Amino acid sequence: MAQQIIASFAVYFVIWWITLFAVLPFGLRTQAEDEHVVLGTVESAPTKFRAWRVVLVTTLVSALIYGAWYVASHYFGLSIDSIPQIVPSYK
Questions:
Q1: Mind listing the pLDDT tens digit of every residue in the chain (91 residues)?
Q2: If you placed Cys at 37, which of 20, 25, 31, 72 could pair as Cys (CB 3.0 to 4.6 Å)?
């Protein structure tokens, strides 16, 4: 039982980390766009970084993805071994 919990947490953590990099640029305003570049920084640096917003959106999106993975694996029996059966083989 404990091993299943740890494995589920590991899958969620990987999904969360990948989703973080997908969500990070959403709503980003750079200093160049706001025409207020702080001396010593690059123009592409964010004007106001909203870390809590990024963490919240990442957590919500990754929870949805994890839920879809859970349903597909537990209720439909799909796994990594099912991929060759889903993808047609071209010979």
A1: 788 889 889 999 999 999 999 999 888 888 888 888 888 989 888 888 888 999 999 999 999 999 999 998 889 888 777 767 666 777 7
A2: 31
